[in-house]
């Protein structure tokens, strides 16, 4: 069913959506669809499937899941950018969600706001970004690692053991600076690696997990082109944007370094 056929209307202005997630119901739903393995539960992949099943074309993307790791916590938070407003998403939930899905992401917790329609060049903004800083290489170059490499590990293997001149944070900063340059709209002013871990993710049901970097970056950017920056927000940064990575969460800028 298309958006038009369902009678649900999208907004022209980019919308920022927030909702609460019932984590136990989310795990129950994912488990009922065999998305939880003995050693792997890719929450981003599960949410991608959940959003497609409930919202279809209206699903916010890119999105970000914030899930507290404290024991016994039952609530997480979902953020996303999309063209569908809160009423359209609530309408989709009422029409298409089964009772378990309605408990995972209750329509009553959905909130939203329109993002600015225009952005002024020269504006400085702070940001937070969860990303997978990877690069693609040919199958011949990738060998056993696959075609997607951790940007830091790829640079490290170009040097003799113990002679890597740069640290992980510096490599990831350059990786992010290049992504901004490619997409246009903003330039990276400063960034730091707030947290890092290696995680295993699923991209197709039944496929083998892919291990890679999970990096939380924060910093400041300067808008260079307002129209392109709006497109950058709507699209996200890096790969795996459909699975919980690449959403720029904006914040007031700190003092210049």
UniProtKB/TrEMBL annotation:
It holds the Pfam family CRISPR_assoc. SUPFAM superfamilies: CRISPR-associated protein. InterPro entries: CRISPR-assoc_prot_Cse3. NCBIfam families: casE_Cse3. This is Type I-E CRISPR-associated protein Cas6/Cse3/CasE. It comes from Caldilineaceae bacterium SB0661_bin_32. The lineage of its organism: Bacteria, Bacillati, Chloroflexota, Caldilineae, Caldilineales.
């Amino acid at each position: 069913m298309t958006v038009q056929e369902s009678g649900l209307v999208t907004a022209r202005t980019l919308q920022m959506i927030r909702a609460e997630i019932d984590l136990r119901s989310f795990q129950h739903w994912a488990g009922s669809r065999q998305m939880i393995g003995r050693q792997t539960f890719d929450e981003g992949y599960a949410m991608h499937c959940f959003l497609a099943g409930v919202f279809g074309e209206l699903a916010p993307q890119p999105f970000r899941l914030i899930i507290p790791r404290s024991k016994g916590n039952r609530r997480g938070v979902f953020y996303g950018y999309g063209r569908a407003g809160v009423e359209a998403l609530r309408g989709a939930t009422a029409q298409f969600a089964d009772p378990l899905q309605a408990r995972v992401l209750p329509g009553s917790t959905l909130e939203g706001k329109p993002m600015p329609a225009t952005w002024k060049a020269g504006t400085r903004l702070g940001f937070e970004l969860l990303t997978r800083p990877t690069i693609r290489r040919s199958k011949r170059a990738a060998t056993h690692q696959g075609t997607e490499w951790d940007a830091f590990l790829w640079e490290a293997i170009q040097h003799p053991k113990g002679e890597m001149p740069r640290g992980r944070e510096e490599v990831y900063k350059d990786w992010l600076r290049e992504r901004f340059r490619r997409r246009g709209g903003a330039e990276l002013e400063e960034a730091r690696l707030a947290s890092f871990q290696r995680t295993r993710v699923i991209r197709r049901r039944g496929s083998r997990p892919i291990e890679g970097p999970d990096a939380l970056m924060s910093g400041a950017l300067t808008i260079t082109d307002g129209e392109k920056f709006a497109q950058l927000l709507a699209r996200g940064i890096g790969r795996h944007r459909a699975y919980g990575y690449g959403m720029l969460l904006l914040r007031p800028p700190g003092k210049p370094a």
